[in-house]
């Protein structure tokens, strides 16, 4: 581009020198106009630019071809080197040799691929090592399973006999529990009747207690009446005394009043004595009534406790009856389950024989797998 600039500079200078009008006395008249000179310069620039474009285009195309060829050669060499490097390892893997590892220096773009390949080989080697160890374990375990299956078959036959005996025992227990449930139900009915009778007796005790209370109130009323009678006797004595005094004042005329006063005094004394005796009897009766009331109250509390206890006993017997019934049902279910277990145990015996045969086949397959794994070189 710099060279073309120099050429254009010289050409434009030459055109301007040749075609520009001359100055001076003896200068000739210009043969071309300014417009024609401009067109000539423009045509010159256009031609030079087209030449420049063509030259640069050809140069760039050839340069790109050269670079592409060089790049292809480098890529081919790089691919050949990488393919040879990976091919050795992959061929070893194809030959079931996992002990090799790629440690060559590769271009930076292939380093992750090399690391991934080494990681994959290492992971496969570890996996196959684990599989190899697991195969040994499976071989040993399969043999143990075979032996255990044979022992299990023998024990299963013995268990079948034991299950039959258990079923008979459970059936007998079921009958016993059913009978117990019926007896508990009868006892519950008896307790219910006792509870009703006890409640009736409690009602009677309450009535007797109420009657005793009424008697106590009557005794208190009688006591009040005796007090009134005592007061009347006292007032009568006073009246007799006053009558005697008035009779003494009257002299002979009052002799009849003296006799009457004496009779009134005797009557008042007898009424007072009778009132005292009635009062003593009422006090005695009241004390006995209070004692009876206390006893009836204690009896009422005792009856209440007995009623509550009988009710509790009834609840317990009801719960026991329900539990016995549930146990009978549960034992019946257990009996059915034992029968099912008996049948299942017999089926298990045949399945154990099949398992023994299958475990023998598994031993053979484990040994075949062991043989295939031994073809791999892990170390």
Features:
379 residues; mainly alpha; Helix Hairpins; 2 domains; 4 helices; 89% helix; elongated
Task: Give a concise summary.
The chain has four helices and no strands.
Write the layout of secondary structure elements.
Blueprint: H1 2-19, H2 34-94, H3 111-250, H4 255-374
Principal-axes geometry comes out as elongated
Task: State the CATH superfamily name of the largest domain.
Answer: Methyl-accepting chemotaxis protein
The fraction of residues in strands falls at: under 5%
The total of helices stands at: 4
Helix content: over 70%
Sheet/helix structural class: mainly alpha
Number of domains: 2
Radius of gyration: 70 Å
pLDDT averaged residue by residue: 75
CATH topology of the largest domain: Helix Hairpins
> What are the secondary-structure elements, in order, as H or E?
HHHH
Task: State the distance separating the first and last CA atoms.
Answer: 67 Å
CATH architecture type of the largest domain: Orthogonal Bundle
Q: Report the major sheet.
A: none
β-strand number: 0
Q: Report the top-level CATH class of the largest domain.
A: Mainly Alpha
Uncertain segments are none
Task: Describe the structure in your own words.
- This protein folds into 2 domains: 2-94; 163-367, Orthogonal Bundle (Helix Hairpins), CATH 1.10.287.950.
- The two termini are 67 Å apart.
- The protein has 379 residues and is an all-alpha fold.
- The protein has helices spanning 2-19, 34-94, 111-250, 255-374.
- Helix 1 packs antiparallel against helix 2 (34-94) and helix 3 runs antiparallel to helix 4.
- The chain is built from 4 helices and no strands.
- Helices cover 89% and strands 0% of the residues.
């Amino acid at each position: 581009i710099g060279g073309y600039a120099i050429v254009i500079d010289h050409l434009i200078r030459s055109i301007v020198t040749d075609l520009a009008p001359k100055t001076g006395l003896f200068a000739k008249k210009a043969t071309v106009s300014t417009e024609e000179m401009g067109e000539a310069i423009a045509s010159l620039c256009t031609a030079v630019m087209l030449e420049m474009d063509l030259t640069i285009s050809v140069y760039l195309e050839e340069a790109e071809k050269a670079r592409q060829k060089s790049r292809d050669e480098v890529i081919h060499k790089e691919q050949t080197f990488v393919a040879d490097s990976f091919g050795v390892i992959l061929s070893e893997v194809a030959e079931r040799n996992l002990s090799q590892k790629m440690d060559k220096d590769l271009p930076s773009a292939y380093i992750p691929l090399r690391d991934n390949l080494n990681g994959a080989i290492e992971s496969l080697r570890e996996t196959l090592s684990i599989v190899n160890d697991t195969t040994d374990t499976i071989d040993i375990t399969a043999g143990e399973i075979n032996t255990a299956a044979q022992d299990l078959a023998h024990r299963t036959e013995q268990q079948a006999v034991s299950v039959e005996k258990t079923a008979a025992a459970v059936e007998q227990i079921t009958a016993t529990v059913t009978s117990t449930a019926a007896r508990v139900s009868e006892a519950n009915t008896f307790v219910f009747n006792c509870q009703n009778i006890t409640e009736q007796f409690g009602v009677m005790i309450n009535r007797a207690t109420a009657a005793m209370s009424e008697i106590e109130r009557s005794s208190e009323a009688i006591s009040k009446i005796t007090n009134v009678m005592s007061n009347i006797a006292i007032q009568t004595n006073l009246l007799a005394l006053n009558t005697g005094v008035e009779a003494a004042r009257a002299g002979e005329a009052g002799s009849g009043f003296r006799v009457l006063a004496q009779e009134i005094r005797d009557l008042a004394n007898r009424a007072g004595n009778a009132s005292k005796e009635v009062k003593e009897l009422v006090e005695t009766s009241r004390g006995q009534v209070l004692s009876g009331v206390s006893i009836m109250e204690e009896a009422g509390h005792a009856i209440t406790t007995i009623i509550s206890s009988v009710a509790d006993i009834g609840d317990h017997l009801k719960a026991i009856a329900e539990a016995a019934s549930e146990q009978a049902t549960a034992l019946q279910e257990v009996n059915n389950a034992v029968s099912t277990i008996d049948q299942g145990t017999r089926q298990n015996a045949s399945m154990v024989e099949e398992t023994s045969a299958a475990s023998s086949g598994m031993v053979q397959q484990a040994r075949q797998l062991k043989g295939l794994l031994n073809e791999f070189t892990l170390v």
